From TrEMBL:
Signal peptide: 1-22
Presence of keyword Signal: yes
Official protein name in the record: Phytocyanin domain-containing protein
Naturally occurring in which organism (per UniProt): Oryza meyeriana var. granulata
Any one Pfam family match given in the protein's UniProt record, by short name: Cu_bind_like
CDD domains, per the entry: Phytocyanin
C-alpha cells in the first residue's frame, strides 16, 4: 500500500497542474466593455485556453453582452442570442475549444465595433488566439461550444480584481497542492 501512495500523489499533482494555468482576461483592459474600444486589437496575440475566463465589465443600464452565432456576429444581430447578460459584470468561462462570438445588444454599438471574437485553443495544443470573424453563410451553425441558455448559463461575480495580463485564478490553491504533494513525497520516499 505504501508503494501506491506516491503514485496517487503524482496523479493528484498532474491533475492539479492544469487549472494552475487558467487565466482571467478583463475584456478591453481598464476600459472594459464599452464603445470606442478596438476589441479585435485587444484580442490579437492572446491565446485563450479551456478554463480561462473572460470578464466583461460594463454599465448594465447602457450595454449588454450577447453571445451569438458567427452569422449574427457578422450582421450585428442580437435577436437570436445564445446567451444574454445585462448585469454589469459578466464572467464567462471558456469550457470547450472553438470560436465564440460576443456583441453588445444595444442598437448601434456592435456596428461601431463593440464586438469580440475569441478562439479557444484545442486540448492538443494547437494555436488558438483570437481571429477576426470570417464571413459566414446565413444558415451557419452556432459556435461549437454553444449550449442552451437556460440549461447551463452561469454568471459569477468575483471580488478580486483581474487584469488583462491574465492572472491564474486557481494558481494559489494549485501551488499549495503542489507544495503539499512535494513535501508528502519527500517525507514518504
Amino acid at each position: 500500500m505504501a508503494g501506491l501512495l506516491p503514485c496517487v500523489l503524482l496523479a493528484v499533482l498532474v491533475v492539479a497542474a492544469a487549472p494552475a494555468n487558467a487565466k482571467d482576461y478583463t475584456v478591453g483592459d481598464s476600459l472594459g466593455w464599452t464603445t470606442g474600444v478596438d476589441y479585435t486589437a485587444w484580442a490579437k496575440g492572446k491565446i485563450f485556453n479551456i478554463g480561462d475566463t473572460l470578464s466583461f465589465q460594463y454599465n448594465g443600464a447602457g450595454h449588454s453582452v450577447e453571445e451569438v452565432s458567427a452569422a449574427d456576429h457578422s450582421s450585428c444581430s442580437a435577436s437570436n442570442s445564445l446567451r444574454s447578460y445585462k448585469d454589469g459584470t459578466t464572467i464567462i468561462t471558456l469550457t470547450k475549444p472553438g470560436t465564440r462570438y460576443f456583441i453588445c445588444g444595444t442598437t448601434g454599438h456592435c456596428a461601431s465595433g463593440m464586438k469580440l471574437t475569441v478562439t479557444v485553443a484545442s486540448l492538443s495544443g494547437s494555436s488558438g488566439g483570437a481571429r477576426p470573424a470570417k464571413p459566414s453563410s446565413p444558415g451557419e451553425e452556432a459556435p461549437s461550444d454553444a449550449e442552451p441558455a437556460a440549461a447551463t448559463t452561469t454568471t459569477t461575480t468575483r471580488t478580486s480584481s483581474t487584469t488583462s495580463g491574465a492572472t491564474g485564478s486557481w494558481a494559489r490553491p494549485a501551488t499549495w497542492l503542489l507544495f503539499f504533494a512535494a513535501v508528502s513525497l519527500a517525507l514518504i520516499g
